Amino acid sequence: MSRPLRCQEVVELVTDYLEGALSARDRRRFEAHIAGCEHCTRYLEQLRRTIATVGRLPRETLPDELRDDLLAAFRAWRE
Amino acid sequence: MLRSLRRRRPADDERALVEALRAGDEEAFRGLIARHHDALLRSAMTFVSSRAVAEEVVQETWLSVIAGLDGFEGRSSLKTWIFRILANRAMSRGAREARVVPLSSLGDEPTVDPDRFGAEGAWASPPRPWAPEDRALAAEARDRIEDAIAALPERQRLVITLRDVEGWPSGEVCVALDISENNQRVLLHRARAGVREALAGYLEEPA
Which residues on chain A are in Cβ contact (under 8 Å) with B138? Predict the structure, then answer.
């Protein structure tokens, strides 16, 4: 196998890894590093937790007034 | 046949939705505007300087969508088409157009402070553990995240908003923003790393 990845390289590959964008070879190098490095394991977990938390941000809901204006416009245009 | 067991393809659902809208189906329109409001408002806010202007841009976008429905050709998804109308409207406001970061300046600066690594590229100052999930913490963590996202450069902000806040697939984000898969991942990674850093400042347990 090729040269092991360094921590400083691993942190820059996390998104490519999570997106499935690494080559099979780089994926093996990445996983081999993670398996033996608690710090990078933690970094990866923290990035995953960041993504999950971002995904739970509260939604902006459509204000009633805007909805009514838009429905009126939709009705007028379709008629 | 296997084919008959497959679920209806999203493209078929979308065609049905477009037909319903063209036929004047108010429930379909009501669902559409409710479903996309968050993504449109958040995206609009990355282009213009105030929430009030962003809200106007969203309203104008829907009026353009209504006027343009008959001309929609389905070459992109309805969502992408709506987003592009929004982006054009928002940029024509001009308020922050000058701030659009050219793609050439994506850069390869590291997303983690190089001082945190030793000469061999191994962690010298490794990430500290974070406090466990907790409801009170979660509410404030969300505020930190909103602030961190708002402080990102425009393209990073758009990408993380569409991918991680709204849950769009990468392909749709690339089409909507007219960027390559690779550039999209670079922007997403930088944005995520920036938000992680902001969250770390809040969730890290004392050394």
Answer: 53, 56
Per-residue model confidence (pLDDT) at position A64: 95
Query: Are B80 and B152 members of one domain?
Result: no
Whole-number pLDDT of residue B103:
47
- The tally of domains found in chain B comes to 2
Asked if A66 and B123 come within 8 Å (Cβ–Cβ), the reply is: no
- Residue found by looking up tokens 């793609």 in the block: B103
Per CATH, is A1-58 categorized as 1.10.760.10?
no
Domain of B69, CATH number, reads 1.10.1740.10
Contact with chain A for residue B129, Cβ under 8 A: yes
pTM above 0.80, yes or no: yes
Best residue of B36, B120, B137, B164 to probe chain A, by most A CBs closer than 10 Å = B164
Q: What is the pLDDT of residues B1-13, one digit of tens each?
A: 445 455 566 778 8
Which of A15, A37, A66 minimises the CB distance to B59?
A: A66
Q: Is B196 part of any domain?
A: yes
Examine residue B103 and state whether it is found in any structural domain, yes or no: no
Task: Give A8-74 as a DSSP string.
Answer: HHHHHHHHHHHTT-S-HHHHHHHHHHHHH-HHHHHHHHHHHHHHHHHTTPPPPPPPHHHHHHHHHHH
ipTM above 0.90, yes or no: yes
pLDDT 10s digits, B29-39? 999 999 999 99
